[in-house]
Amino acid sequence: MATRSLGEAYEIMKEREQVRLDQAREALEEAKALLAEGMDTGFVLTNLFYAFYYPILAIMNEGQVPTTMQSITIGLFDQQFIKAGIFRKEYSDAVHRVFTLKPKCSGEKTPVSADEVNKLLALARDFIADAQEHCI
Predict the structure, then answer these.
(1) Which run of H or E residues covers position 115?
(2) How far is the C-alpha of 21 from the C-alpha of 55, rounded, in Å?
(3) Is there a domain that residue 122 lies in?
(4) How many CB atoms lie within 10 A of CB 33?
(5) Which residue segment(s) compose the domain that 22 sits in?
(6) What digits encode the pLDDT tens for the residues 125-135?
């Protein structure tokens, strides 16, 4: 049975992190585009959620923390990275807010203002940048 060297394992881990951060940037751009086109807020919020969630997966991968259900992963992120002061608490507040706002089923209407969505978009952009810096 072939085993990977530590260097190879490290490279694979870094590639996975980069994939997640790229997915986050794509989700953020899609959320912006959907908002600009006047699409249903639910679609915007779903993409916005993933703009926050994918960096969490990258960070958790870097810390070798197992990921399971979304809510558990977010809770572990809070415990290990927010409470430790590694990331700003407003990122945690934002991901929790988007998690509760995103539609749970198709067609569900979500009451959220354009101002709040724009603030969340800006926070997602900053979070992705900070996560990228952390994962370097």
Answers:
(1) helix 114-135
(2) 5
(3) yes
(4) 12
(5) 6-135
(6) 999 999 999 98
Q: How far apart are CA 96 and CA 75, in angstroms?
A: 9
Residue 71 belongs to a domain: yes
**Tally of domains within the chain:** 1
CATH number reported for the structural domain that contains residue 118 in this entry: 1.20.120.330
- For residue 1, being part of any structural domain is answered with no
- Specify the amino acid at residue 93: D
User: pLDDT digit string (tens) for 96-113?
Assistant: 999 999 877 656 677 788
Q: Are 83 and 56 in contact (CB under 8 A)?
A: no
Judged by DSSP in three states, 46 sits in helix
Dihedral (C-alpha) 110, 36, 32, 69: value to the nearest 10 degrees? 20
**What is the spatial distance between Cα 26 and Cα 49, in angstroms, rounded to a whole number?**
12
